[in-house]
Every structure is written in structure tokens, then in C-alpha cells.
Description:
- The chain is mostly helical.
- The chain is about 80% helix and about 0% strand.
Amino acid sequence: MVAFGLYDAAFSTLGRLLGQDAKTAIVGVTLLGGLASTIGWALIVFFEGLYGWRISCFILALFHLLLGLPLHYFLLPREEQSTETHAKELNNQTTVHKEGNRLFMLVAIILTVQSFVVATISVHLLSMLKTIGFSVSTALAIGMMIGPAQIIARLLEFSLFKNLHPSWSSRVGVLISFFGIIFLFTDGYVLALLGAALYGAGNGILTIIRGTLPLALFGQEGYATRMGLLGRPIMIALAFGPLISAFILEKWGINILLMILIALVLIALIGTLKLPVHQAEKVAE
């Protein structure tokens, strides 16, 4: 149920409503989402300190029920679907597999591999930094660079690079993440700060790409179905990435884990180089 509240549902809705013009709106949603999470964490800490975690969860649930649900219900425009349109949408999943299967699989691999890396670093960042010699306070300071860098990257994507094709944005995002991971886990505070900033910026761009790339490559028709199909392996990677990485970290150490993460990002980078850069209604044919 939690997945209904993540970016995928919002991206699918924007793609349905705005079509190829949804990129700016998707970037805006991720930008506001980053700011909202910053405020949200502060609120959670505040409520938890006053009322405990159970009451805090209840308050957050009320926010969803009394604020989020009415906003979505009353503000989102509705579409009257004809029988023909409804039947067409029911066949979208079959269409996805018939049209552009190789390209779709390539996009799925890129996003899934990157999600595995992001999940691993999100959960194990502090312990990995401590393993290579940073103190807890220094590791926290390094980790705090990631959030602001994500927001700055999304602002740039929203303004200066709003006309850049998502295939190019994905290449930039993965490349920046690649160098970010290398610098992040070096034995030097300044380089680690730079690495955290680069990794955060790359991750900020790639969050946007998750919504804009399928829309640009495959078009509006069947977009929600494609987002659902892409979301399945991504969610698996997000769920099992930290567990697998914890096992590797415990069994073979940080160097092996870092080599695996760098290799995965290289796979994603090579995949982005194979993405087409034209606006495709017919890419999938």
C-alpha cells in the first residue's frame, strides 16, 4: 500500500494528464518532494518527542486521510473513458511486451541497477564511512551533503536543462553518480564531501528520469502500465539491495562491496549510452 504514495503513482497521473508535456511537472513534483521530506523528517521528530511513535504514525495517517485524499479527489481532473479506450488500456500490458521489448528491458535494467545502488548507500552510508576511518560526526556531515545536492540538481533540471532529452539526462545522472561513489569512499574529507555532493546530484537527476524517460521513449499511451512494470523490479531492488549488501559487507568487507557497486553503476552507464535521443512515439515499433 505504501507504494501508492510514492513517486510512481504521481508520475503516472501526470503522464496521463499532460502527455509529453509532463516533464516539467514531474521535475516540479520531485523538487517539492525533496523539500517535503526535509520538513517531514523534522515534523516526525517533533511529534515523536511529544507523543511517541504510535501517536506520531496516527497523526501522519490523518494527514493522508484528511488532507492528501481530498486534495487528490477534488483537484485532479477526471477523464470520461469510452468503452473503446477502456479496452485499449486493458491491452496495454500486452502491447508493452510486443512493442519495444528490448528498449523497455534496457530501461528496466538501468533503473533497477541504479535503485540497488541507491538503496545500499542510503542504508549503509554511515557504517561504510565509519569503516574507512571517518568518525560518526564526520560521516554525518558528509551524508548531509546528499540532500541539498539532490535539490540543486533538480532545480537545474527544472530551469537550465528543462529541454534536455531524458536520455541525455540519464547519462549525466549516472556518470555523476559514478564519480560521486568513487570520491565518496576515499580516505579524505574534502573528496568525500565532493563525492557526496556528486552522488546526491546524480541521484536527484535519476529520480526525475524514472518518470520522464519512459514517457519520452514510449509516449503517453500505456505510460501508467509501463510505470507499473518498471516499478516491480525497482521495488525488489530497493527491498533486497540493503540486505544483500549487508551480507557482502559482513562476509567480504567494504572493498568488495564498493567494487560491486561501481561495476553496477558502470553497467547502468553503458546502458544509458544505448538509449535513443529522439522523441519517440514509434520507438517501440
